[in-house]
């Protein structure tokens, strides 16, 4: 049964600039102090406050200290960010002698007035709390005199923090596999002497062609996490001899390859299965269709006809002898091939640390559910969280759930182009429709978002109804 992760996302916030602040940006926000290049942005689970503080016009007498403190305020909730203290000479030594140290605590940045810079680049990350949505950032100045008394206080307003609307995203847990069955497949062109069914490894290019199959088997056979469950072989012959003879050749040559592999790898009975195709007419048709051979359409018509195989081959040979000789030389050798498929099981991984290691070293061994399990160990929106779903969709590029989760991870990081690409393969489930709505919301295409949300709601997705209500409420307030 599918399980969903419900994640309320944190967006990069906007800053509402107050009229009085905008008017003061070229002058002093508070007496003696001005601020330039102010930003207040949400970064994951932190609120980042940054600004350049101009102190050129700030005068501090020898017996005074000035404390500058950015302060977040929203109703009864408030938080003082780390302060900056500028101390006159006598006041600085008074505090040192009396063991007071810094007025506001250890996080305070202290400057003696004689060493005061003209400008300070202020940057602070504060863990985000919900009350900060709509909070005002004030800039507070307090002047301190003797006896640790506050002589004067000033407040300026820098701006307000407003969370952009970022809907809850639904990551879908893939169904856990009870058996992780995988396969590797290919084709080998093993050459036999005319009318023979005996394999000669050194004959023509057989060493390399046999090496394809052997190398594929070795790639999984020596892996402790893998158990080979079957080796499938299908032999094809070309059409230039009588059909009965070609049938015998296809059967005999496939049997010879089976015996060769079984002797080499000592597989148990029942592991190797065989099939055969007496004449590879499909391969011949594909070759002719892609070629620019003379009388191509006529030859294709003969290949597609209902004639018996021997009569069909004889008619092509008789009617178009030049083209037949060309095919015999350039196409027929490649019709004599063996298709192979190695099927195997990979053990289930349950330990998150082991899954993390596998993701780095052998991601193809993991199931989608195992990727999902390790993703829950990361903070949503982080590079590590996103990388899990990006890796999963590379391993399962056409799977709808892999594409849906990768799309959600991209929306979480405002990577709209990547999200759109993944959503093309995410299918039409309620969760996929909802993800398209979430992307439309982030792109501020609210009419499209409403249509998707209404569709997902009508498909029975409760979160779609809740998000639609929230979207409508927010739009009313704007």
Automatic annotation (TrEMBL):
<dbReference type="InterPro" id="IPR011990">
    <property type="entry name" value="TPR-like_helical_dom_sf"/>
</dbReference>
<dbReference type="InterPro" id="IPR024480">
    <property type="entry name" value="DUF3868"/>
</dbReference>
<feature type="signal peptide">
    <location>
        <begin position="1"/>
        <end position="23"/>
    </location>
</feature>
<keyword id="KW-0732">Signal</keyword>
<feature type="domain" description="DUF3868">
    <location>
        <begin position="23"/>
        <end position="99"/>
    </location>
</feature>
<protein>
    <submittedName>
        <fullName>DUF3868 domain-containing protein</fullName>
    </submittedName>
</protein>
<dbReference type="Pfam" id="PF12984">
    <property type="entry name" value="DUF3868"/>
</dbReference>
């Amino acid at each position: 049964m599918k399980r969903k992760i419900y994640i309320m996302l944190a967006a990069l916030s906007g800053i509402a600039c107050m009229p009085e602040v905008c008017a003061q940006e070229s002058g002093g926000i508070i007496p003696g102090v001005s601020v330039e290049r102010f930003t207040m942005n949400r970064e994951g689970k932190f609120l980042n406050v940054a600004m350049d503080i101009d102190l050129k016009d700030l005068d501090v007498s020898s017996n005074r200290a000035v404390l500058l403190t950015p302060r977040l305020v929203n109703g009864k909730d408030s938080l003082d960010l780390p302060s900056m203290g500028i101390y006159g000479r006598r006041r600085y030594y008074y505090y040192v002698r009396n063991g007071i140290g810094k007025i506001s605590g250890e996080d305070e940045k202290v400057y003696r007035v004689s060493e005061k810079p003209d400008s300070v680049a202020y940057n602070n990350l504060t863990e985000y709390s919900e009350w900060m949505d709509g909070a005002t950032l004030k800039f507070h100045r307090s002047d301190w005199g003797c006896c640790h008394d506050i002589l004067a206080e000033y407040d300026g307003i820098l701006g307000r923090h407003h969370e952009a609307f970022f809907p809850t995203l639904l990551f879908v847990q893939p169904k856990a596999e009870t058996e992780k069955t995988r396969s590797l497949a290919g084709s080998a062109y093993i050459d036999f002497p005319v009318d023979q069914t005996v394999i000669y490894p050194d004959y023509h290019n057989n060493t390399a062609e046999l090496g394809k199959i052997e190398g594929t088997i070795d790639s999984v056979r020596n892996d402790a996490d893998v158990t080979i469950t079957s080796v499938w072989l299908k032999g094809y012959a070309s059409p230039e001899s009588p059909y009965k003879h070609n049938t015998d050749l296809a059967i005999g040559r496939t049997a010879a390859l089976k015996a060769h592999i079984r002797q080499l790898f000592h597989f148990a009975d029942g592991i190797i299965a065989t099939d055969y195709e007496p004449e590879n007419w499909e391969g011949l048709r594909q070759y002719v269709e892609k070629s620019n051979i003379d009388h191509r359409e006529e030859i294709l018509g003969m290949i597609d006809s209902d004639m018996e195989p021997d009569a069909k081959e004889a008619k092509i040979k008789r009617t178009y002898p030049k083209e037949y000789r060309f095919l015999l030389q350039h196409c027929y050798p490649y019709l004599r091939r063996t298709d192979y498929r190695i099927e195997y099981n990979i053990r289930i991984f349950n330990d998150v640390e082991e899954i993390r290691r596998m993701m780095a070293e052998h991601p193809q061994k993991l199931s989608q559910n195992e990727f999902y399990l390790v993703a829950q160990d990361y903070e949503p929106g982080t590079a590590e969280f996103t990388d899990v779903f990006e890796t999963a969709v590379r391993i399962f590029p056409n799977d709808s759930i892999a594409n849906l989760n990768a799309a959600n991870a991209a929306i979480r990081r405002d990577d709209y182009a990547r999200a759109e690409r993944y959503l093309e393969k995410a299918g039409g489930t309620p969760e996929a429709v909802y993800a398209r709505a979430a992307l439309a919301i982030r792109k501020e295409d609210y009419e499209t978002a409403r249509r998707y949300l209404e569709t997902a709601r009508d498909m029975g997705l409760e979160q779609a109804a809740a998000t639609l209500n929230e979207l409508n409420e927010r739009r009313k307030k704007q």
